[in-house]
Specification:
Layout: E1 21-22, H1 32-51, H2 54-67, H3 80-89, H4 100-113, E2 119-125, E3 130-137, E4 140-141, H5 146-149, E5 153-157
Helix pairs in contact: 1-3, 1-4, 3-4
């Protein structure tokens, strides 16, 4: 097991603020480079999920965050409206764009490369069972809607 990731031993919910805000999407300032970065990140995330286990993917996130830790800004929330806007603008061009884990991994990868961090949250809904993942920074949902993610109980945040 990696030193960066230790699985949760308790069954308690992650220490995560209740989401209360959606991120505003900014689409006008998106460059072609950022749009291409979003599409490529989506392709790489889909490939990673096909070839690796979920635990390997979580380890990869932790390693990537550690590698980029000196570049990640504490007040990185200003980058997320542009990133969210770019993902929204490329939605129809990305494969698996409706797959929440693939989209969340891709957005987190783009965010980390632009010095913006967030938590990848995994949540469940008990009956009928369903699972979902999204990105969250503080109480702000970055790649989904608050109304939707609040229907899930968070079980893990990376």
């Amino acid at each position: 097991m990696s030193q960066d990731f230790q699985p949760r031993r308790s069954h308690s919910a992650p220490n995560l603020p209740t989401p209360t805000r959606d991120i505003p999407c900014v689409t006008r300032s998106n460059t072609k480079r950022l749009l291409a970065h979003c599409i490529l990140a989506q392709l790489m995330a889909a490939r990673r999920l096909r070839r690796r286990t979920l635990i390997d993917t979580v380890r990869w996130i932790c390693q990537r965050r550690t590698l980029l830790s000196d570049r990640i800004s504490a007040n990185s929330e200003g980058q997320w409206p542009k990133i969210a806007g770019a993902f929204l603008a490329t939605h129809m061009l990305r494969i698996n764009s409706d797959h929440c884990l693939t989209s969340s991994l891709a957005a987190l990868d783009v965010g980390l490369s632009l010095s913006a961090d967030a938590q990848l949250v995994f949540g469940v809904y008990p009956s009928p069972f369903s699972a979902h993942s999204w990105l969250q920074a503080g109480d702000t949902v970055l790649n989904d809607r608050v109304e939707y993610v609040r229907t899930f109980t968070p079980i893990m945040a990376v």
